Amino acid sequence: MLLLLCAGLLVVAGIGAAEVVAVTAGDARAEQAAAAAAHAAEGALAHPPGGDDLSVAVQAARTVCGLEETGGPVACALARAAASMAARANGAELVALAVGPDLRDRGADAAPGRVVAIATVELRRRLPVLERVCAAPHPRPTALCVARATAAARLSGRGVTRVSLVDAPEAVRELRWQLDHPRDADTCAGHRLAGLVTAPLLAVTRLAGRALGDAAAGVSWLLAALGPVVAPLAFGWGLLGASFDGRGLHAGLTELAMLLLAGPLLAPLSRIGAVHIALAPFHATVSFAVGVLTGVDDSDRVRVGGVAIALVCDLLVLTKPLAIAGRVGLEVVAARITPGATVASGALRGTLAAAKHAGDLISGKPSTVLRLVGIRPRRNLAGVLDAASLAYRPGAAANQVAQMAGRLAHWGRTVAVDTPLSENALAAALARVGHAPLRGVEQLAELSQLHSGARTLGATAGGGLQPLGDPPPPPRLRLPDPGAR
Amino acid sequence: MRSERGAETLELVAGLPLLGVVVGALLQGAVLVEDRARAAADARELVRHAVVCDHRDAPPAQIAGDTALGAARVLLRTAPDGTGGWLVTATVTLPPRILVPGLRGGVDSPLAATGAATMRREPC
Question: pLDDT tens, A392-415?
Fold first, then answer.
C-alpha cells in the first residue's frame, strides 16, 4: 500500500512538474518572441524610408510610435508591421510597442538612428492538464494561462548596422526620461541662439511665476481664513480665475464683426479659396480686435475675470474722448455721482499695468527683465529685443504688433500731422489716414495692454500661470511595463 | 493461524519494479524536458547568428557550443515577411537521450526534442 501510495504521489508530482515545465517553457517562448519583435522593429528602421522623419516626429511631438496609433511617419507603420510579423512567426501576439525617441544627443559619440524599440507580446502557455481551465472566455488567473514578456532593442555601431537586444526595464526608464526631457528637434542656429537667451530668462520667469503663484495662493488662503465675512470678495476672486471654453463664442463674435465691417456679401465670397486666403490678414486682425474688446480669446481657457475687466476697460478707454468732448462720458458722470469712481478707475488701471508687467516678466520679455535687473536699454534697442524675443514667446506677437501700431499711430497723429510728402513719406501717408482711425488704433493698443494685464490677473487668480506661455499638453502614452505579468 | 511474518518484504519485492518504472519514467521525462529546453536555446542562438550579416555562414555547432548539435538536424529557412524584410527560422531537432530500454532514439524518434525560433534578418 505504501509503495502504491508513493508511486501515486510520484505520478501526481510528475504531472505537476509537467505543468511547471509548460509554464517556464511558455515564458521562454514569450521572451524569444518579444526579443524577435523588438529586433524586427529595429531592423526595419535600419534603412527605413523616412527614418529621420520618424526620429524628428517622435521627438517633436514628445511621444513614441506606438501600436494603437495609425498614420504618422512611414517608418512607424513599417516598424509596427515588422514587429507584428516577427511575433506571430514565434507563435505570439504583439500587444504593445513603443519605438523612439532616439538618444542621439545624450552621448559624446552621437550617431543617427539610435531609436529604441520596446515590444511586449503574449502567447498561450499550452498547459497539459490545466488547458481546459484556460480555454474559458476569461481565464483566471491570466498569468497562468498567458505568458507575457517585454524586450527592447536598439541600433548600435557606427558604419555597421547591428541591432542589440538591451535590458527592457532600463530601456523603459530611459524612454520615460526622454519623454520627460524632450529634445528640441529644431537644430537651426537661430533657434539655438534663442535657446541660449531663453535659459537665463527662464530662471527669472520661473521665479516671478512662482512668486505670483504664491501671492495668489496667499490671497485665497486669507479669504478662506476670514470666513463668511468676506464671502463676496472670495466669490469675486474665484470668479476672476474661473474659465470657460471661449473658442465657439470667439468664432461667432469674429464672424459677426466681419459681417458688420465688410457687409453681408462677404460670407458667401469668403467660401471661395482665393478670397478666403486674401481675407486671412483681415480676419486675423478682426479676431485680435474681438479678443481685445470682449476679452473672449480663441482659447479653451478664457477667464471670466479677463472678460469682465476687458468690458470695464472698454468703457474707460473708449468713452474717454466722449467724456472729454461732451462731458457726458461714463467716467466723468460716475465721478460726479460717486467721487470714489475716479479713484477706483485709477486703481484698476494701476493694477492692470502691474499685472501686465508681471505677465511680461513671466513671458520673458527682454525689456521688462532688463528693467528688473536695473538696466534701461534705449527705446529702439528695447523694441528690437522685444521683437526678437517673439522667437520664443510667439503668443505675444499680436500684442507686440498692436503696441507698435499704437506707437506709430500716436506718432502719426501728433508729430507727423503736417509733414509734406517730400520730407517724410510715411508721416505724410499717416496724415492722410486721418485723425479718427489713428486714434482708434491707439485705443486698441491701449486696450491690448490692459487686456494683457487682465489675462495675467485672471490666470494668477485661477492658478494657471505658465512661464513662456502654455506648453502643449503631454500626449497620453501607454509604455510597456516589463514587470507586468 | 498461519504466521504473516515476511509479508511486507514480499510486497516490497513485488512493488519495487513498479516503483522503478515510475522513477525511470520520471527521469526519462526530465531528460526529455531538458532536451527540449536545449533545442529551444540552440534554435534561439542559431537564429540570432543567422540574422547577423557576417555570421550567416558559421557552422551551427561552433556557434551554439552544444556538442549534441553534431547529431542534430538543423534547418534554416528564409521567408519574406511582407514588409520588405526576410524572416529567418532556425529549427533544431535533437536526438533524445534514452534512459528507458526499448524506446527509439535518433532525430526521427517521436521523442526527439524540437525547438524553433524566428527573427528578422538584419540589413547588411
Answer: 677 777 777 888 888 888 887 777
